[in-house]
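SUBJECT: A protein chain and its fold
Encoding: whole-number codes for local backbone shapes
RECORD BEGINS BELOW THIS LINE
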Amino acid sequence: MRWVAAIAFAALLYACAFRPPARPPTTVPARPPTASTLRVRSGRGVERVATEDYVAGCVAAELGSIDADPPSAARARDVQAILCRSFALASIGRHRDEGFDLCATTHCQVYRPLPATVIGRLAREATTRTTGLVLLVDGWPVLPVYHADCGGHTSGAEDVWGGTGVSFLVGARDEACPRRPAWRLEVWLARLEDILAEDPHTAVNGPLRGVAIERHDAAGRAAFVRLDARPPRVVRGADFRTALLRALGPTSLRSTLFAVSRRGNALVFEGHGNGHGVGLCQAGAIARAAGGDQPAAILAHYFPGATVGSR
């Protein structure tokens, strides 16, 4: 029913922000959102960008490095175009209080003006092939979150960000996601204590003596992390990762699918995957496209109950 989709739309805007606001939004548009242009803030300030130009720029930024030749690469870019368009329309007004709709960073989606290159041409072709197509639930564009690499298993939105579960954002094994070598991060305890102190969601009193996983979700991600201090504190795994990413960069704690161990006065994190792990896994989607799956089937796997349709 439409009111169910409306509630899901509001909950997702809250859950999927890089740092959620104090309270989730309580209102949604009176009808499914649509716009021919978007207000986008980048390093050059706020610009009004045609929606299809925005989609093409996102596709090029997100999937510019995949092989340009096989038909499977075109299918993967078509999937990404539908994702980017759906995300954009479901996020109209996300930054309304700041005077624009979307930012050009991973807080929303990575966007850059379309380059005059082969990558730009291929992104434009994917945008044209999928013109007007979005991911829908009960006729509403949904917020189809995605990430680089799930490490073999996606997670439900509520496991990562909390709140009420969302029917089309559930965790599942992803046999198509290629298993990559584990990444590794070593951080001095004193440095980690300083990093965590920068965020009220993770700060502790007294010296940090260790970190342990308090609870795993069904995918094996660290849903909650225990910070051994006086007093000890349990924080969300997503908040813990966010604090490290801000201080150490995007290649530090790449996901919450990790194990942690002590090495002298340092902690060693070893894990798999890259990103929050909710929704579509880009590595898995590319592999599925290479295996012959069509865009609608790929999207149906990662977003059960949602369908591809015109806005």
Summary: Confidence is low (pLDDT under 50) at residues 1-33. The longest strand covers residues 210-216. The chain is about 35% helix and 20% strand. The CA atoms of residues 57 and 263 lie 44 Å apart.
